[in-house]
Write a structure and sequence with these properties.
By secondary structure, the chain is of the alpha/beta class. It is built from ten helices and four strands; from the N terminus they run βααβαβαβαααααα. Helix 3 runs parallel beside helix 4 and helix 6 crosses helix 7. The longest helix is centred in the C-terminal third of the chain and has 21 residues.
């Protein structure tokens, strides 16, 4: 039984979410790579309207400008609300990109990169996390592969403390508790 769909822009985003979300929460979740922001939004709308199963949509804000983020969130939320017919859904905008979760802890990313970062580099990391990670970790291997092969369960828990991941855990937990309550 599919409890919910998690839709993200691409396969790499799905991989990040599958590694960082607790296994007990995602066992009945179907992950779908949307193939870009617009297609992911369209897919989320269609699934809400036709399948009547909760949807989590995770897309990059692609900016850290607060008014642009608010506007994007408001517009997408409105469209999803129109399609949902009361079915639970949650929109998560990764600010500025989902790879920001890897920068949850500076010492952890310094350990993985095997170097220290100065304040200017760290500012760049916060504004362009994907570019930063590709620059410091190299492009020959995927960022995800490089990071997840170099960290242990304790360090995964550090990454799970990112507010975006925490909010997703809360939402997915609420869906699970709703299902358990409904089955009683």
């Amino acid at each position: 039984m599919t409890l919910a769909y998690i839709i993200a822009e691409g396969e790499r985003d799905i991989e990040i979410l599958q590694k960082l979300l607790p296994k007990n929460l995602i066992q009945d979740i179907q992950f779908i790579a949307g193939g870009g922001s617009y297609r992911a939004r369209s897919l989320a709308t269609s699934l809400l309207a036709t399948r009547k199963i909760p949807v989590v949509l995770v897309i990059d804000a692609d900016t850290d400008n607060e008014s642009q983020i608010f506007e994007k969130h408001d517009l997408i939320n409105y469209v999803l609300t129109q399609a949902s017919s009361g079915i639970p859904f949650k929109l998560f905008l990764a600010i500025p990109q989902l790879e920001i979760v890897f920068l949850q802890d500076k010492t952890l990313i310094e350990k993985i990169a095997q170097r220290k970062f100065n304040d200017l580099e760290w500012q760049f990391a916060q504004s362009k996390p994907k570019d930063f990670l590709e620059t410091v970790l190299g492009k020959e291997h995927s960022i995800n592969e490089r990071i997840f092969s170099d960290i242990n369960d304790k360090e995964i828990k550090i990454l799970q403390q990112h507010p975006l991941i925490q909010e997703m855990i809360v939402f997915l937990s609420s869906l699970i508790s709703d299902v358990i309550t409904a089955q009683r």
